[in-house]
Design brief:
This protein is of the alpha/beta class. It contains eight helices and 19 strands. Strand 5, helix 5 and strand 6 form a beta-alpha-beta unit.
């Protein structure tokens, strides 16, 4: 009898232990993974209600490199066997390249994008490439526009995701006057699909996170001048991999983030003009990079302890991610590099 009781106790313990790996989706925290896709973008969010959302999906090809990196984080780290939501910020291949490939491996319940254009000026093969995406989404992807709210479930702490730009349109320019709006000349229009990027503003209690795809100066200033409709943001995913054609000071300085994460590659992004803008943010406490930019000197980018993949080439890259984890209530959050990195704690304003 005692042996049987011991077996039962061990069985219960094993079940509880196996369930504990799913704690991220049940302990009231919001987790955000910035997955290394070598200068593309793939941002995975796991909500306290257990919903999963992936914004962008990196490059296709390369032997399934980026697809497999996303699946590894999704399955092995976040312990998810499906995606509730998969969003596309815009129609450049380093952002939607693996949506179809992921759908062949896991169930994706909802696809979100800015609408599929018939053609794309910068990609002559766009129509052909869209065949796989249309098939994966079964031609049922949902079109978002500025002002829309993605239907994410809230738990005890209110959670929301608002679309603030899409297809070159922006939310109404209401709010406090932007003190940085008058300091810069109006930029030229951008005809590329970068300017049509979908931008996502996530709020979780007092915490906020802004992700703008590859949005460029013309729409950034349209959004942020003369007023600031976004307010201050805690966590900012540096736009367009840190390229200088994005990250206009009128946006970056006005949102005044505490922490920035740059999804750059060894030779892509992390441009000096963007780094100079980031260093002007008075509230800034840390900048994380997914890669060391091998073209820049050490003092021209963030310190080495804030770089996830400090390597010279993609062959030796271990695809280490950056993770932000927001405490219940959104009162504080931690950011760490990989599973074994030391979490740094930041207090929400």
């Amino acid at each position: 009898m005692r042996r049987l009781l011991a077996i039962c106790v061990l069985s219960v313990w094993a079940i509880c232990a196996s369930r504990s790996v799913f704690a991220d989706q049940r302990d009231g925290r919001l987790d955000i993974y910035f997955i290394d896709v070598e200068g593309g973008a793939a941002t995975l969010m796991i909500t306290p209600a257990g919903e999963s959302l992936l914004i962008d999906s990196g490059y296709p090809d390369y032997g399934g490199r980026d697809r497999d990196r996303i699946l590894k984080v999704l399955r092995d780290v976040a312990k998810q066997d499906h995606l509730d939501h998969a969003a596309v910020s815009h129609w450049h291949l380093d952002h939607y390249g693996n949506h179809a490939a992921l759908a062949s491996e896991i169930k994706i319940h909802n696809f979100w994008d800015r609408g599929i254009p018939e053609t794309l000026a910068e990609d002559k093969n766009f129509e052909k490439k869209m065949v796989d995406y249309r098939a994966a989404s079964q031609n049922k992807s949902k079109t978002v526009k500025a002002g829309d709210m993605l239907p994410l479930k809230s738990s005890k702490t209110p959670l929301s995701m608002k679309i603030v730009t899409a297809s070159r349109e922006v939310i109404p320019n209401v709010g406090e006057p932007n003190p940085f709006a008058k300091d810069f000349k109006p930029p030229e229009d951008d005809p590329s699909d970068n300017a049509a990027s979908v931008s996502f503003l996530t709020k979780f209690g007092k915490f906020s996170f802004l992700c703008c795809g590859d949005l460029t100066h013309a729409i950034e200033t349209k959004l942020m001048t003369p007023n600031n409709p976004l307010g201050k943001v805690e966590l900012f995913m540096v736009t367009h991999h840190g390229l200088g054609s994005s990250n206009h000071p009128a946006l970056v300085l006005a949102i005044a983030p505490r922490v920035c994460v740059m999804c750059n590659g060894p030779t892509k992004g992390c441009e000096p003009t963007t780094n100079a803008t980031l260093r002007q943010i008075k509230s800034l406490q840390a900048i994380y990079q997914l890669h060391r930019n091998v073209k820049l000197k050490a003092d021209e980018q963030t310190p080495a302890e804030f770089i996830a993949n400090n390597v010279d080439d993609t062959v030796s890259c271990q695809a280490v991610f950056v993770k932000a984890s927001v405490a219940p209530g959104g009162e504080s959050y931690t950011v760490q590099i990989g599973l074994d990195g030391k979490p740094r704690t930041f207090q929400t304003r």
